[in-house]
């Protein structure tokens, strides 16, 4: 069902690193030289690249959750339909917050399916899984986003970027809590 935690952690780190590729660096340079917020340009670039991966994971999880909201069936239909709706609404707000933080750091936020597909550590779900499989896939997705957020912390801390640290903390809390709540539906 889920990859081992070590492999998932490695995948999250790899996703963050891939966001800092040389092509991405060139594209992100845009108007960054005009910003003086007390964070060095190189640090802002690394943070923005990490946040781009977080944005891609969050958007991918949003899309998966919305898909499951539309397609869930079975005895838990009403409960899951409403739960998934609340979750995708929360994710939609998070996507905006993450993208706006990237912009505040002076870099363009990724916004295309191809960019999100390249940057995300969350695999696409093909077909319509059972309700129980949907729950398990969402647990895995929320855990992945939490790991991606956590992987950005070293550069954020080193740059004393408190606004991004606050955003990451809020995102980790939301994803860890949601994963726990979903996981509890699979027990028993």
Could you characterize the architecture of this molecule?
The protein is mostly helical and 188 residues long. It has a single domain, classed as Up-down Bundle (Ferritin), CATH 1.20.1260.10. The protein contains 7 helices and no strands. The radius of gyration is 17 Å and the shape is elongated.
Question: What order do the helices and strands come in, and which of them pair?
Answer:
Elements (H helix, E strand, L loop, with lengths): L4 H14 L3 H7 L12 H31 L5 H28 L8 H7 L11 H28 L3 H25 L2
Helix content: over 70%
**Low-confidence residue ranges:** none
The number of domains = 1
Order of helices and strands: HHHHHHH
The number of helices is: 7
Number of strands: 0
Shape: elongated
Brief account:
By secondary structure, the chain is mostly helical. The protein has one domain: Ferritin.
Task: List the defining traits of the structure above.
188 residues; mainly alpha; Ferritin; 7 helices; 74% helix
